[in-house]
Amino acid sequence: MAEYCSGACRATFALIALLLIVPHAAKTHYAELNHRDHYGGISRAVPHGGFATVVNSRFSRRSLHRDKDAKAAAQYCKDGDFTALYETIGQDLAPWKETGFTVSLMDWVLSGFKQYPLRSKGVGVAFVGGTPHIITPPALFNTVGHHKRLITGYLELMIQLAKTFGDQIPDVEFVVTTGDEPSTLLHHYGNGSNPERLPAVLRFCKSDASHADILVPDVHFHMRNFTSNLLAHADDFTAQWPWEKKKPMLFGRFSPYKRAVSMRAPELYRSGKKGKSICKTAGPDLWFCDVRKHFMWEWARAANRSGLPVDVAQQPKRDMHYHASHKWLLHLDGQTCSSRLEQLLVLGSLVVKEESGYRAFFHHLIKPYEHYVPFWKKLPEEAEDAINWAKENDAKAAEIAAAAQAVAKRYLHNKALMCYWLTLLQEMSRLQRYRTGPDAGDRVYPTWLPVADYMAEEGRAELRRHHMDAMEFWS
């Protein structure tokens, strides 16, 4: 047919072809660019040609800009003077300092992922080229109840770490668990005598004396938008409730969680009022301790009847503004570390903190009688001693409250939390004795799924279902 077509006819066909091809190319390339922009994924090949050259040029400029931003963010983590915050990282990684993280160790940890103590409550993640991948079966997320949304929250955090730091995140892999109790009980692993059989697992809470979990910030910081919803209003709390206006009363509101305590971690055992036993055997080597119930329903009620200024109960619930109207705020840990502590530190009131034996990633920054007043090292009656001390040392109590608030403002905002993650992953990568990813050939990966793919297909729907789709991170 072309041999019978005039010059005008051929020009018309060429124009039609151009109109059909170029929009398709533009749609394809911009879809790829948007996917890369949102998820920080690996660039795809683009056909040669004039339009492709323009797109590649734009892509290169965006990539350079993104790389520049990632380097700036990583530099902020070095220059932001978070050295004191990072101190716990070296302590947590010390058991593997000599042997490092080997292929056999990682294979062994993942082989027991479904069994106690992990019981599939968590996820394995590998970063390669700054991009996170899932290395444990995603189908397991549907077998762990409410832990699925916690896992999904951590996966969204991985996406945001990649978006913020890019290839400043080294190639590294790890397991992060969402379980309520610490997972690496030293007693079960020869007291850490063989690092090749000591699970390297990331978690938000542990006891230093009995556990080797590697501490990370609790994902609740992001799930509850701690920075914008609470920390950003620290000065407002102080202005609304200056020290002299606060009510001199020990105040607290708690859910009556039982605390699971291993008999192999005796430092976590709790005795009640006058030495009463408040822990019951729940398994071959497990106690359930009614710490909160006992304090609310026995000690606090009796203390109130005796005339002590105490308002500690389960109901009615009160918001943080109401908490801030009191001089003395009680903190009791829950099943393990309670995320209520960081909330109380913001309010400009004196925190009276249970010495439970548990520690989170920032607890080394807060010291007794510098940032809080301790109690219940042995018995709950020590709360009365704390109240009497606060009454007699009102000016010092105000100083302690202000110092606690300053620690929260300096070290517990979103950027500091993400810097902690970056620094931890960098230190873990230095200890890893093999190359990460299936292409490296050092380890077999039965599961290798980009986190971005899981989040697009299922994860973000899970976040929306639980009203977690507005989680905040770096900015």
TrEMBL record:
GO molecular function: transferase activity
Residues of the Glycosyl transferase CAP10 domain: 168-435
Electron transport keyword on record: no
Secretion signal span: 1-28
Family recorded in the similarity comment: Belongs to the glycosyltransferase 90 family.
Pfam families given in the database record: Glyco_transf_90 (PF05686)
Entry keyword set: Signal, Transferase
Protein name: Glycosyl transferase CAP10 domain-containing protein
Family matches, as SMART domains: CAP10 (SM00672)
Tree of life domain: Eukaryota
